[in-house]
Amino acid sequence: MAKEPILSAKDVVIQFSLRGKMLTAIRKCSLDLYEGETLAIVGESGSGKSVFTKSFLGMLDANGKIVGGTIEYDGHDLAKYTTEKEWMTIRGKKISMVMQDPMTSLNPLKKVGKQIEESISLNQGVKKGDQLKKMAIEMLEKVGIPDPERRYNQYPHEFSGGMRQRVVIAIAVACHPQILICDEPTTALDVTIQAQILNLIRSLQSELKMTVIYITHDLGVVANVADRVAVMYAGQIVEVGNVDEIFYDAWHPYTWALLQALPQLGVKGEDLPTIDGTPPNLFNQIKGDAFAPRNKQALAIDFEEEPPFFDVSPTHKAKTWYLDPRAPKIEQPHSIRTLREKMRGRG
Amino acid sequence: MAEREKLIEIKDLQITFGSGKHKFVAVDHVNFDIYKGETFSLVGESGSGKTTIGRAITRINPVSAGEILFKGRRISGKIPKELDLEVIKKCQMIFQDPMASLNERAKVDYIVSEGLINHHLYKDEDDRKQKVEKALREVGLLPEFASRFPHEFSGGQRQRIGIARALIMEPEFVVADEPISALDVSIRAQVLNLLNRLRKSRGLTYLFIAHDLSVVRFISDRIAVIHKGRIVELAEAEKLFLHPLHPYTKALLSAVPIPDPELEKNKKLLVYDPSVHDYSKDGPVWEEILPGHFVWGNQKELEGYRKEIDSAK
Ligand SMILES: Nc1ncnc2c1ncn2[C@@H]1O[C@H](COP(=O)(O)OP(=O)(O)OP(=O)(O)O)[C@@H](O)[C@H]1O
Ligand SMILES: Nc1ncnc2c1ncn2[C@@H]1O[C@H](COP(=O)(O)OP(=O)(O)OP(=O)(O)O)[C@@H](O)[C@H]1O
Ligand SMILES: [Mg+2]
Ligand SMILES: [Mg+2]
Q1: CB < 8 Å to B218, chain A
Q2: Is the CB of A188 under 6 A from ligand 2?
Q3: Dihedrals φ, ψ of B9, to 5°?
Q4: Closest partner residue to B193 among A162, A195, A272, by Cβ?
Q5: Which residues of B touch A258 (CB under 8 A)?
Q6: How many angstroms separate the CA atoms of B42 and B213, rounded?
Q7: Which residues in chain A have Cβ-Cβ distances shorter than 8 Å to B100?
Q8: What is the pTM assigned to this prediction?
């Protein structure tokens, strides 16, 4: 790819201090983001998807810190930013985020309409009350809230879970950012409204030339929106490629395990496949491939040395020793090779 | 078919919020039974009243009309104290918004065993600790997490704390409100397997609320589809997916995301237009159109649905 990345994170390390102990949530994680693209980040719960992306806009919790690596954006290294003043030039202006837990990003004591107005006036400089109100109501309507005039005057607790989520989306896009990070933006929505929201974000994306990162566990949503997909496990991206390459030609054993656990492939009354064991304890130093202890076909070297990335194609790479030319020949599991046919065989 | 035991019966349920000019009817004319040992799912529009119904069964929301029975006894409205206590113990709810429902200041150890502590349901401190550890492990969390606070977890980890907290009570009936929305595919599979296992071993019954219809299809025995506070269709899971009748159900099913880029990008969305229903003269009824398959419609619509069923045969 000849294109220059719009944002480039290199070897980022993020630690949290917890009552005297250090937890390493992100372990030398790298990512290039290209202008106008839609990147989906999938992966284990607790693998660091939210923490990694929150670090792009200085939203880590107070006990967390970037302790290594660089995040290049617009000629600056965001990893060096320390003050709120510096972050205010980025957050909610250039990069904005739809947070995972809608209730925590809404102020319970303020009317929903007012909260949207704040985001609009902060970033678009609109000051007039009437005009602001009109824009806020339009925004509510845009994200599919019925009866927006009445809803404008309500408080967050009077909204259903999915309505709150749409309000948070309205606040995040009201500022017209260059990069929009959506952390689980549609989990609380029914599939019809989900489809509407995905379309809404898509049209805002082309209208405002936004680059979008989706964090989601719904691989159906990934299939719908993503140009590229990054898979995370234990604080690292372990595989990244174009959406087709990840769904039809995955190579990391964790990606395999993820695809195999899809409920669409399940047989009613029988257990769905799961991954044995638990993810590594992030308080400890991790040796070798972090996924090895849960991988039944792990190689001896997986327990000794951390694998580098190997290229599968110019756009697709995976961090697994399986792809080392010296490794014993490993085939993709049958269920992965036949995923496409299986999906087509369903009613 | 032998008569199955009804664990929960919901009769003409209505739930309103506010009063006077601000009165808002969130749920209306809702009727369904949940059999012992089944997984009954409620799916539908966001804001249609799913959580409200779940909260009414667990006695968090008052009902304004109709009634709810648990094992044949009315549990809505004013009830004797010991029945109230029984409902608190036997009927648990896994809450939709994990962050909002967990006490920020308490450690996981306390949060998970709060119900046990409140009702003295453990032998000694050791027993309580063991129960917490087992509950955490069952949902795929490390026992070490017990000494941490909720905000120190990822979204999916918090959600599982909420699940552990409900299951530790060994309930008979669980309202699982979006219990798996923040979980990755593999942990989701683990939790679904756990729920299924508990159903088989302890005869647990679930009211399952979720927007992920692929999961709902996999886990449910029967599914009710709700739109604007009203149930529009109810059927066995596979029947509903293969032969949906109500136009809202059809629209909903057409929007289910498919984890396959080619299929997903080419799928056809159906849009539901509520104005297709003309209920001005011919009013709608809740009709059992096939054994076990209910749909909300007027005589003209029902006739259309019958034709559709015949031509599908
Ligand atoms: N404030 C904090 N203090 C300590 N540890 C934290 C804190 N916030 C997050 N963590 C830990 O960092 C790791 C990464 O968390 P993160 O929220 O990024 O996960 P995630 O990939 O977004 O997971 P999910 O899919 O469940 O949302 C987790 O193990 C989590 O427990
Ligand atoms: N405490 C409350 N006060 C006022 N209105 C409320 C309250 N709780 C819920 N509502 C309203 O009742 C309706 C149903 O809400 P409910 O939370 O049951 O929806 P839901 O089906 O669970 O939606 P979702 O899928 O988005 O969670 C909504 O219109 C909501 O705004
Ligand atoms: Mg997260
Ligand atoms: Mg709800």
Answers
A1: 263-264, 266, 268, 272
A2: yes
A3: -125, 130
A4: A272
A5: 184-186
A6: 10
A7: 101, 103-104
A8: 0.89
Asked if A258 is an interface residue toward chain B (Cβ–Cβ < 8 A), one would say yes
Full pLDDT tens readout for chain A, 347 residues? 457 899 999 999 999 998 889 999 999 999 999 999 999 999 988 899 999 999 999 999 999 999 999 999 999 999 999 999 999 889 888 999 998 777 778 888 999 999 999 888 877 777 788 889 999 999 898 888 889 999 999 999 888 777 888 899 888 888 889 999 999 888 778 898 888 889 888 988 888 889 999 999 999 999 999 999 999 999 999 999 999 999 999 999 999 999 998 888 888 888 888 888 778 888 888 999 999 999 988 999 999 999 999 999 999 999 999 999 998 888 888 888 888 888 887 65
The answer to whether B182 contacts A50, with C-beta atoms less than 8 Å apart, is no
A190 and B45 Cβ atoms separated by less than 8 Å: yes
CATH of region B6-312, choose from 1.10.760.10, 3.40.190.10, 3.40.395.10, 3.40.50.300 = 3.40.50.300
Distance CA A239, CA A167 (A): 33
Which ipTM was obtained for this model? 0.85
Q: Whose CA is nearest to atom 25 of ligand 1?
A: A45
Backbone phi, psi, residue A163, to 5°:
-70, -40
Rounded distance from Cα B270 to ligand 4 centre (Å): 23
What CATH architecture applies to the domain A7-226? 3-Layer(aba) Sandwich (3.40)
Q: Where are the domains of chain B?
A: 6-312
Which residues fall inside 5 Å of ion ligand 4, going by CB?
Answer: A 161; B 51, 96
Q: Is the CB of B101 under 6 A from ligand 2?
A: no
Contact A340 B260 (CB under 8 A): yes
Q: What residues does each domain of chain A span?
A: 7-226, 247-264+282-346
